[in-house]
Batch of 2 targets.
Target 1
Amino acid sequence: MKLTVLRNFLNETGDISRFTGRFFAEAFKPRYEFAELLRQAFFVGYKSLPLVAVTAFIMGLVITIQSRPTLVEFGAEAWLPKMVSVSLVREIAPVITALICAGKIGSGIGAELGSMKVTEQIDSMEVSGTNPFKFLVATRVMATTLTIPILAVLADTVSLYGGYLGANIHGVVSWDLYWNQVFDTLAFSDVLPSVLKTFFFGFAIGIIGCYKGYNSNKGTEGVGRSANSAVVVSSLLVFILDLLAVQIIDILRLT
Amino acid sequence: MIPQANIMPEMETEMVDGPVIQLKNVFKSFGNNNVLKDFSLDLNKGENVVVLGKSGSGKSVLIKCIIGLIKPDSGTVTVLGENIPDLNHTDLDKIRAKVGFLFQSNALYDSMTVRQNLEFPLRRHRANMSKSEIDNLVIEALTNVGLAHTVDMQPSELSGGMKKRIALARTLILKPEIILYDEPTTGLDPITGREISSLMCELAKKYNTSSIIISHDLNCVKIVANRIVMLIDGKCYAQGNYDDLKNSNDKQVQQFFQ
């Protein structure tokens, strides 16, 4: 039983690796599907914007409110903007953005491609002289890889604004003082690795969603399963990639 | 003993330039399931051949081998003089531009309007066409199937019969020489099924196409078939016209016509 689980895990890992290899082999060769890439970027980026912004705002607000009592205990309330900005920009905003996108976009891609597979739309595309891998997979993976970092930068900004309001609920921090402290604390080495890792998060969300949808089977039940496992696997992968990124940043002494 | 009935005389008169599709000794299996076992078939120009067989007998696998969606384990699948399994992607696309495929589930793209669905193959295969030429072809294809008013509708707004007609219009828009139909009347009521079958005959005459039709709907078979090929146990078990097979004494053949 355990051996079967291990074998299935290794098979799945191998299949995902092959799928990723196929992406690199096909995505950068002509013919390029720019129109479809823009359409997907619109859906992935623009349509996720409100959800990401609201979540980031709430996270900024909540983290600030929760952190305040501990700092007050040590008489370090003035450090609140410094502490909150580092934790939000380095970790919370990118990871929350990636998880929101894994839920919203990963499941959407998994379900859409899954239903296209079971209703023979992917076969139909191939018969129409279109490489469905390029048209459906390459465009979606590129869209998630390019737009999730932009969403993460937006989430950084909005969460910091949430932090400002949070800091002013029980205390008084002026607008200028708050932002001066934030920019004083944040260094290039905080922002760059945090943005860089979101490219990998975006890639993982896109490739897993597409892999699960593209290989969907067993009819409508399979579509549901594809959407579900796309969210589970890509969310897990976001955490694993985050762990790796933190280790690499630490080794390179960027923090 | 395999009963081989005579081909209809009127069909013989339409035979020109030899077969447009020729399958020779095709084998295909999935694991231990041997779907096609030494299957051979010729489709002549202007001919409508129906492949009749039970569900799961490998009919859909057969036409997917012809269009290159599935690779046979062995045997040759020659379409318009080219052996499909040997072709690279570019050459396969050239052949596919001349072969239409109507899917059982219609396979209309849900995220696109009817117009975009019809434009999709045109933009791939006729990249140098102007916008007005594309528009004219779309309207012509929709008029042919009597649904010009649906041009800006979404597939989800259409009934089953309308979807089938739109799928047929999309198949015909490239003016293919050969059309492969995968169960064109399945899931439709008898009246709509008859309408679709008549439309298939009408369009085949208008555009002088040759067709392979996968079906187990006898009403459709009776209307469209010049010749019927019975796919039983992965082989071409019997062939002939509708009346020949209906009057056959073979038990397996009789099962379909009772």
Target 2
Amino acid sequence: MDRRKMLALLGVSPAVIAGTPSFAGTAPAPLSAAAGCESESMVSVLNPGIETKLANRVPLAPRLSTLHGKTIYLVDFDWGGMQENGGVLKAMQAWFAQNMPSVKTIYKIKGGNFVTDDPGLWKEIADDHGDGVIIGVAG
Amino acid sequence: MSREAGEIEQKYQIPTVALAGDNVVSFGLGAYFKDDSGMPLRFVGVPFPFAGQPQSVAVKYVAGKDMVSGKPFMQAVVDALTTPLTPEEKLSGPAPGSAAPERRMLAPDTPDHLQSLFMARDWTDYNPVTLPTEEKVAAMLKGTSHRPDEVIKSNSGTFGSHRPFTVEKVATVAVMAGAKPEYLPIILALASRVPYLDSTTSIAQMIVVNGPIRQKIGMNSGLGALGPDNEANSVIGRSMTLIHKVIQGYKEGVTGFSSLSNPLRYDNLCFAENEESLPDGWEPLHVQMGHKRTDSVVTIFNGWNFINSTGWAAQHYAPQLLMRDYMSSLSGMGATIIMDPSVAELLQSVQGFKNKEALGEWLSQNVEKTAESYWGNSIVASMLAPLARQGLKPYADWLNVPGKTAIKPFTNPRQIHSVVAGGKTASVWFATDFGPSGGGISIDEWS
């Protein structure tokens, strides 16, 4: 079908598709002219900037002297929801079993979903004398 | 996840390693640490993407290099748990090296240099801004009764970092966007809701204005309502973009990581509802949300998709049927239909939808998609699959059905909204997955 006829049937003017001459023929105005400014004059303006106050520093927990004989929790925080990112944590668990067999690893999936907290699990890990936590995977 | 790792470290004093894809790890080590948590968490990183990969790839990642330190991955994990803390990691209290407070005025300079400075500081959408001279800002402030030094909000940065801002700061941004003083109450109302929702996905915002202010300031709710054809719609929409960047401090690669972002963010789909053309029984959006018809209200929506009806309503296939069909591609977590008044009239008078709620109810009952497609959406999967595994109905049932089983994803008809706008030159509509972020915001309170 003729393109012009087809466009007419669709209720679209061929002129609309063809565009306007200004697209091809007009160069954009210089920035200063577009902003209505004269470059030689000095002006004072308010500062839009806002300083972000740095957060108060919070120290990390003391580290372990060794992992030998320790219990490490691997926590899947369930980003993605279908347990797809648990693969990395399970590969880590397998690595510990093969390379550091004295390390006891426990795999847990966080309750709720990835935007909710699970304070019950953190308490459970503490009550169970978990020595360290690996949590992920964020993406 | 950084939040949870910090809680385990701080509250229970258990050494923790945060594991992230290299797409977001720099955010955890950068802006999130400096501006939000103050805790220098120890991260290890895997290549992105990791989800959706076979287990063999996960094994390869673990056998490979840590994307943060460059060490063998598991060596980095062991080191993160056992290497003694550095002096930097033991710091508590006020952070060293805080920047000097921003001065109220910038040093005098030429307009060209100031335009360049605004671009260098990312105080722009890369269209020229109107320079906020004292005279222009003072004139803008006449658009509100609020004092210039009134602090609107303090925790305005992404994830709530401390970035206090005043009415004068918003007026400054409004001047930059090209606003008139009479637009300022809407812009202040929009600013009161920062931080806006951001994501590595292509999330965007939509602004809908209701009430008498629409006509008072000349907003367009009719012909061309969604196009670049009206000063108030255009400039108020742009103001939100500049608020996001200037006041919230959003910067790609620093405080945000939207992979593709979204062109809707240039103007945030700013328009007014055509309340005068609503069919009988169809209430304006703000009235549905509990405001009086005489209130002026702005509502911010969040969403991703904006599906065009393409053609007009056909006689042989009622509008709600095509809406149903198109909405099957949406996630089911919410929707807003934006429709021309002529579509609303057809739906009300011919199809029998006595009000907007009836249309939402019908769509909730009739939109279908397969269970596998439903769970194939990673936002749905992230938000709802964990809850489904924990027994939440009906999602728990949908996890266990064959993939091709048809389900009705819009479980809550109240999350299907309708907004009427347009000029009655075509019976067109958009099906979107935009949903209101909180309730409507009173504009009158900012007058």
